[in-house]
Design goal:
about 230 residues, alpha/beta, Alpha-Beta Plaits, 7-stranded mixed beta sheet, 6 helices, disordered N terminus
C-alpha cells in the first residue's frame, strides 16, 4: 500500500511538472498567432494561459516545499544506524554504562560552573542468590528508591554499578552508600563494597575523579565483609 501511494505521488508530481509548462507554451503560441493574424481573441487566450501557468507553478512549488520527504528516496543513506543504547535503562532506573563517561563529564562541568560538589561512587556487588545483581529488577528498584531524582546509576558490568550524586559532598555520599548497602543486604544474601571520590575534594577533573573512586573500591574489596572506602586527599 505504501509503495503504491509513493508511485501515485510520483505520477501526480510528474503530471504537474508537465501540465503548467505545456500551458505556457500554448499561451505563447496563441500570442504569436494573434500578432501575426491580428486576431484579438488569440491575444486574450494567450494572456489567460500565461496567468494559469503562473498560478499553477506557484501552487506546485508551495506544495513541494510543504510535502514531507519520502524517507526511502530523499534521505541519504548512511553506513550505520545509531542505536539509542546511551539512554537504555534497566527497569527504568539503571543507565547503560555507555552513557557513564558523558554523564560524569557533564556533572563535573556543571559542578565547576556553579561551585558545587559532586560525588562518584563505584559499587561492587556479590550475591549467593543472584548471578547478575546489576540486572536484577529488584536491585534496580532498591537503587531507584534510595537515590534522588537528580542522581544517576550506571551498569558497568554484571556486578559493578557506578553512581553520580549531584551536589553531594563526602559525608553525604557515605550516608547514601550506607543506606543503599543496608537495603541491598536486606534484599538477599549480598556483599557490597564501595569506593567514594568527590569533586573538588579529591580530584579536579573527571579522569582523576574516576581513578580515585576505582582506587577506593580496590581498597574496599581487600576486606572480606562489606566495606566503604573514601578517596585520599592529596
Amino acid at each position: 500500500m505504501m509503495a503504491q501511494a509513493r508511485t501515485n505521488q510520483r505520477a501526480d508530481s510528474s503530471a504537474a511538472i508537465l501540465v503548467w509548462p505545456t500551458t505556457g507554451v500554448i499561451g505563447l503560441a496563441l500570442g504569436v498567432t494573434g500578432l501575426m493574424l491580428e486576431i484579438p481573441a488569440f491575444g486574450l487566450g494567450a494572456g489567460l494561459c500565461a496567468l494559469a501557468a503562473g498560478i499553477g507553478s506557484l501552487r506546485y512549488a508551495a506544495h513541494t516545499a510543504a510535502a514531507p520527504q519520502d524517507p526511502e528516496i530523499d534521505r541519504p543513506e548512511t553506513g550505520s544506524v545509531v542505536v539509542p543504547s546511551q539512554t537504555e535503562t534497566h527497569n527504568g532506573v539503571l543507565f547503560s554504562g555507555e552513557y557513564y563517561e558523558l554523564a560524569i563529564r557533564s556533572q563535573v562541568t556543571s559542578a565547576r560552573r556553579f561551585l558545587r560538589p559532586v560525588a562518584v561512587v563505584r559499587l561492587r556487588m556479590a550475591s549467593t542468590g543472584i548471578d547478575r545483581p546489576s540486572q536484577d529488577p529488584e536491585v534496580a528498584d532498591i537503587i531507584g528508591g534510595t537515590l534522588r531524582e537528580c542522581d544517576s546509576a550506571f551498569v558497568l558490568t554484571d556486578h559493578d554499578i557506578s553512581l553520580i550524586l549531584e551536589d553531594t559532598p563526602e559525608s553525604g555520599a557515605i550516608w547514601v552508600v550506607e543506606r543503599l548497602r543496608r537495603a541491598l543486604t536486606n534484599h538477599c544474601t549480598m556483599h557490597v563494597w564501595a569506593g567514594v571520590a568527590c569533586y573538588p575534594a579529591h580530584a579536579m577533573d573527571t579522569t582523576e575523579l574516576q581513578s580515585q573512586a576505582e582506587d577506593a573500591l580496590t581498597r574496599a574489596r581487600e576486606w572480606p565483609q562489606d566495606r566503604i572506602e573514601v578517596a585520599f586527599v592529596d
